[in-house]
Write a structure and sequence with these properties.
Chain lengths: ~110, ~90, ~170
């Protein structure tokens, strides 16, 4: 009984995790400039990782694998903002200024 | 169920690769490669359970570490190269 | 000057010893957890690598600043729960934008004054902002965070400052 509940919960988590990973990928391809692409990538990096790894964790149950998965998740969540920040800073230093009033702003230009 | 997640992750990795090929700036490529790396970590974790090989999780963690360090190494490389090019420009004028 | 900042960079000798010990225990725990084998050879290899890592860390001057600056408490867990909710909420928002037929972006760059926070809390806030899709910390400098937001609503929510208040509440003693 408890096993089925965990199974269903992990399926739901995995499905939504796969979806959010996919949405982030589509966004990274569709968005018009670097900084907006980073927003899309952050969907896969935070929500996608949380959902997929938690879903797998529920499948693993209380084993060593769950602890390892939790360590991987914690590591990803701590490092991905750091990497994004380094990337954004480097891009800004190289003269890649984020536009407030660029072509990406169609809804504002009207 | 694992197959669906694996497929979604693989498709996203393909999209990230496409972004890495299109560019246009080097930072877009670094972003795409970083994304590809995190997706690899997720893929390896899911595959560990798909094939019932929990030892794959060690690979996933190692990949996460290498991916993180790799992004910083590439950014550092381009930063030094950019600042050196700037110095050369100033010396040339 | 700023007492929080002085406290951050100068650990006493007792604090330094405690940092050594905690660091070593963490390394040993990580080794045992990841190897999962208790053969004498592997344990000896683990002891050698832990000792090597501690030696290199000391040589790098790693212990000259406070290593375990982030202190865990219940309120941090509460903040993480709130952050998780925010991540889900803003992910849905970004997903809606990405999947719309026409991209409706209204990007903003806002500056947030965080000078009243300690350096650790500034890092927590900056990383939390980046972790929530739709907002991205571009630069952290001199008590100010430069934040890029995908939508005007996201920027407004940040300037309203709920996240800042919650971060400030974590380590309030």
């Amino acid at each position: 009984m408890m096993g089925t509940v965990f199974d269903i919960a992990s399926w739901v988590l995995l499905t939504f995790g796969g979806l959010s990973v996919l949405i982030g990928g589509i966004g990274a391809l569709r968005m018009p400039d670097l900084f907006t692409r980073m927003h899309a990538a952050s969907v896969t990096d935070s929500l996608g990782a949380i959902l997929v790894l938690t879903g797998v964790m529920l499948q693993a149950g209380l084993t060593l694998a769950t602890i390892k998965l939790a360590a991987i998740l914690l590591f990803l969540l701590l490092t991905s903002p750091t990497a994004s920040n380094a990337l954004a800073t480097a891009a800004m230093l190289a003269g890649n200024k984020p536009g407030i009033d660029t072509t990406s702003n169609r809804s504002d230009a009207q | 169920m694992y197959y669906a997640v694996t497929l979604a992750t693989l498709v996203t990795m393909g999209l990230a690769l496409a972004r890495a090929v299109i560019g246009p700036t080097v930072y877009d490529r670094v972003l795409a490669v970083n994304m590809f790396g995190t997706k690899t970590v997720l893929l390896v974790s899911v595959i560990a359970f798909l094939f019932g090989r929990p030892d794959f999780l060690d690979l996933a963690l190692a990949y996460a570490l290498i991916n993180f360090i790799g992004v910083f190494a590439v950014l550092e490389f381009f930063r030094t190269r950019a600042s050196r090019a700037e110095l050369d420009n100033e010396a040339g004028q | 000057m700023n007492p929080a900042r002085d406290n951050q960079t100068a650990p006493g000798s007792a604090g330094r010893l405690r940092a050594y010990l905690m660091f070593t225990v963490l390394l040993i725990a990580a080794w045992v957890l990841w190897s999962g084998m208790f053969k004498p050879l592997l344990l000896a290899l683990g002891a050698v690598s832990c000792a090597l890592v501690v030696y290199i860390a000391v040589r790098m001057g790693y212990f000259d600043s406070r290593v375990f600056a982030l202190r865990f408490n219940l309120r941090l867990l509460g903040f993480w729960a709130w952050l998780l909710k925010e991540i889900v909420k803003s992910s849905l928002e970004v997903a809606r934008i990405v999947l719309a037929r026409k991209l409706e972006l209204s990007t903003r760059v806002v500056e947030i004054d965080v000078s009243q926070l300690s350096p650790v809390d500034q890092v927590i806030l900056g990383n939390s902002i980046t972790l929530t899709p739709g907002t991205l910390t571009l630069d952290a400098d001199d008590g100010k965070l430069l934040v890029h937001a995908l939508t005007a609503e996201g920027a407004a929510a940040l300037e309203e400052g709920e996240m800042l208040r919650r971060v400030a509440a974590i380590h309030k003693d």
